[in-house]
Write a structure and sequence with these properties.
This protein is an alpha/beta fold. It is 41% helix and 16% strand. Helix 2 links the parallel strand 2 and strand 3. It is globular and about 55 Å long. The two termini are 17 Å apart.
Length: 274
């Protein structure tokens, strides 16, 4: 699929930690690589670099076992000479532009994992997104990231700082004549709460989706397998390739969740064939 002239940029963003951003990032990037697409990856969490460590763990594990598996190409933000900046130009903006320009040369997809905090880099990255994925734990505590609700959990009382940032990113893209961001809120851990709360969440998310313009997709339930795979940089799709014979029911269910997520993203030229 390397005949497309411009890479499709996927940004994974959420200003709350612990929502499963890096797990979603790694699985989406690796699934695309395994389906034959060229994927560049960039981690903008300059302190923790969870996605970066995941990919480096993968490369080290594969090398130690003499295996070759499709892997996203990881890039660090390039360092720049401050003297080369134009007056008023932001150093982070410049570094991000350079990194994306370098990856666009041969990538079909560029996946950018943003930090769980409000940073200048994160703001700029959101304005580059063709597809924005916001993982969300299915609870009202995490819903606060998207909007504020009343004490009954039924009515939306106002937008959140994060939603306003996405709105600003959309405005910037519109002014630049770029196509709108396809924003998908991925609902993780949907099985973890009581039915009455689940129904409230369904209603309020449906309301908000219409109001501020996002789609929803089912994400991952809490599975120990994700944490176990991290040190080796593996995903669910790699288990058979490393000699795991029998997939247990939890692994099969998680693989199905990943397939449904990839389908729901509706990325250009992508068919979830795993």
């Amino acid at each position: 699929m390397g005949n497309r002239s411009v890479a499709h940029i996927i940004v994974v963003g959420n200003e709350k930690g612990g929502a499963g951003k890096s797990t979603v990032s790694m699985h989406v990037a690796t699934a695309l690589a395994r389906m034959g697409h060229k994927v560049g990856a960039l981690d903008l969490d300059l302190r923790q670099k969870t996605l970066g460590r995941y990919i480096l763990n993968r490369e080290a594990f594969l090398q130690s076992k003499g295996l070759s598996l499709p892997t996203p190409t990881y890039h660090d933000l390039p360092d720049i000479d401050q003297n080369l900046l134009k007056p008023g130009e932001n150093a982070f903006d410049h570094r991000l532009s350079m990194a994306v320009a370098k990856m666009e040369v041969d990538a079909d997809f560029i996946l950018i994992d943003c930090p769980g905090s409000h940073t200048r880099l994160s703001q700029v990255a959101h304005s580059l997104a063709d597809t924005l994925i916001t993982p969300l734990n299915d609870s009202f505590i995490d819903f606060d990231l998207l909007a504020h609700v009343d004490s009954e959990g039924e009515d939306i009382t106002g937008p959140s700082v994060y939603s306003e940032m996405v709105w600003n990113a959309r405005q910037l893209r519109s002014q630049a004549g770029l196509k709108p961001i396809d924003w998908i809120v991925v609902r993780n851990r949907m099985g973890a709460q009581a039915m009455v709360n689940k129904q409230k969440m369904e209603r309020v998310i449906a309301k908000l989706a219409k109001r501020i313009g996002f789609r929803t997709a089912p994400g991952f339930n809490e599975r120990v397998i994700f944490r176990e795979l991290f040190p080796r940089g593996l995903t669910l799709l790699d288990l058979r390739d490393i000699g795991v014979k029998g997939m247990n029911i939890s692994n099969v269910a998680a693989r199905q969740e990943l397939r449904e997520l990839i389908k729901a993203l509706e990325l250009p030229g992508v068919t979830a064939d795993f």
